[in-house]
Amino acid sequence: xxxxxxxxxxxxxxxxxxxxxxxxxxxxxxxxxxxxxxxxxxxxxxxxxxxxxxxxxxxxxxxxxxxxxxxxxxxxxxxxxxxxxxxxxxxxxxxxxxxxxxxxxxxxxxxxxxxxxxxxxxxxxxxxxxxxxxxxxxxxxxxxxxxxxxxxxxxxxxxxxxxxxxxxxxxxxxxxxxxxxxxxxxxxxxxxxxxxxxxxxxxxxxxxxxxxxxxxxxxxxxxxxxxxxxxxxxxxxxxxxxxxxxxxxxxxxxxxxxxxxxxxxxxxxxxxxxxxxxxxxxxxxxxxxxxxxxxx
Amino acid sequence: xxxxxxxxxxxxxxxxxxxxxxxxxxxxxxxxxxxxxxxxxxxxxxxxxxxxxxxxxxxxxxxxxxxxxxxxxxxxxxxxxxxxxxxxxxxxxxxxxxxxxxxxxxxxxxxxxxxxxxxxxxxxxxxxxxxxxxxxxxxxxxxxxxxxxxxxxxxxxxxxxxxxxxxxxxxxxxxxxxxxxxxxxxxxxxxxxxxxxxxxxxxxxxxxxxxxxxxxxxxxxxxxxxxxxxxxxxxxxxxxxxxxxxxxxxxxxxxxxxxxxxxxxxxxxxxxxxxxxxxxxxxxxxxxxxxxxxxx
Lengths: 296, 296
Prior knowledge:
296 residues, alpha/beta, 10 helices, homodimer, seven-stranded parallel β-sheet, globular, 13 strands, two-stranded parallel sheet, 18% strand
C-alpha cells in the first residue's frame, strides 16, 4: 500500500518507515527536514493544505511527527501543544481532505500518568500531568474523535513504550551513557537509578505500525511496549559491561516520569504483535553504532 | 487588583469582566474583537509577544478566550486545538513573561466525559471524547502543569456548568427557543428533551472567578455549576410559560453531550461560592432581553 510517515526523518519515524518499506509498502516521509532514506517531502504540521497535498493517493498515514523530547516539552509547553495537539488535528484534517482512509497515531505509555493499578492496560484512566503526556494524549483523543465524527476516516492509536535504537537523539539516556563510557568518563545516574522503563526497540515499534495498518479495527488503542522492564541502573551496568567505566549518582532531574508496568497483552492477542529484539541485543547494536559514529 | 479577562468581549467573558469590575478590580479585556464595556485590547491568542505586552503590570489573568461552541469544535477540531490548547499554553507563557502571578483557567464540566459515578466531583476521572471537552481538558492540564513547573505562576481551574445569561450566542438553545416563541413558531426539541444541564448563570460564574482570584490555592480545580438540574423539556416549558407557543420534537443532534449530575460542594466549602440566581429568574431576564433585542 501507499503511505505517509510523518516525522519519518527523525529517530523513531525513520525506523517505522524502514520496517514499512521492507514490508512492501510504498512509503513517503513527511517531515520538517528531508531524509535520504525514503522518498521525502518537507512539510510543516501547521500547514493543512501542504499536508493534504502530501497525503493525496495514500492508503494510510502513520503520524509520528511530534515534540518527542520530554525536556523540550517541559521547557516549551506551548510548542508541544502546537505540534502534538494542533499538529495532530491538522494531520487528520489533511487525511480527510485527501481521502486517506486510515491514520495510525503514535501515542505513548506516558498518557496514563500515575498508575492506579499495574500492569496498566488500555482501560486504565489517563491523567498525565507532564506537558509531553498531556499533549500526546490530547492529540490521541482528537485523532480518535476525528475517526468517530468523520465516516471516511479510521483511526488507531498505538501507545508506545520508551523507544530505543540506532539514530537516537543525542540527549537520550542511552546516548549519554554510551558517550560517557566511550570517553572514559563516569556514567552519571540522575536519581536512584531504580526507575524502570519497558524499553521498546524502534523496529519492534515499526512492526506494530505494520500490523495496525493491516489488522487494527477503527477506534482501537493498543499498548506497544517491550516485555522487559529495565532499570536505569541495569542500563548503566549493561553499558559498562560493553565499555568499562565507573558509575556515579546525581540528583534526579525535574519532571522525571516515574516507573510503571504496562501490559502489552492486547497487542499480542489482537494484532499478533510480539517484540522480537531482546534488550541485550538491541543495546549491543546501539553501542556498536554509537561507537563507530564517535570514531568516524 | 489589576487583571486581564481573555475572551472578555464574548458572552461569558463579558459577564466575568462585569462582575470583576463591580468587585473593584481594574479590568482589561483581551479578545479578537474590541468591546465598549471595558478597557479593551485586540490580541490574537497565537501571539505570545502581544499577549505578554497586554499582561504587563497585571495581578491576574482570567482566561476565557476559547472555541466555546461545541458544534464549531466538532466541525473544526484543529481550530479548537489551536485556540483551546495552544492558545491556553500561550496565555500561561505570556503571563510568566509578564510576571503575572496568577491565572484562573475557565474549564468546563464537559472535561469529565461519561459519568462513572454521580454526582461528579473534582476527583472523577476525565475522559472526554468530544473535541470541545478534549481541547478544554488539555488546555486545563497544560495550564496546571505551567503552575507546577514554574515557580512564579499559580494556576486555578474552574470547571464551569453550561453558562446562560444575556448576550448569549444566537445558536444557544436558549436563544433558539426564545426566538422561535417570539416569532410564534413551535419550539423544536432535538432528541427526547430529557437530557438535563446544571445551567449556571454567567454572573454566578463571574463570582466564581472573583472568589478564585481572592482565595484559591495554587493547583486547585473547582466545579462551578448551578444547583438546579433543568431538562431541555423543562426549559422549553418555561419559555412557553413566558411566551406561549407549541412544542415539537426532532431527531437528536450529533455529538450531543449526555446528562450528568455535577457536585459544586467543593466550591461552596473552599471558595465560599454560592449560586445566587435562581434558574427561573435568570430565564425571565433572558427572555426579556431577547424580546427587546428582537423588537429593537
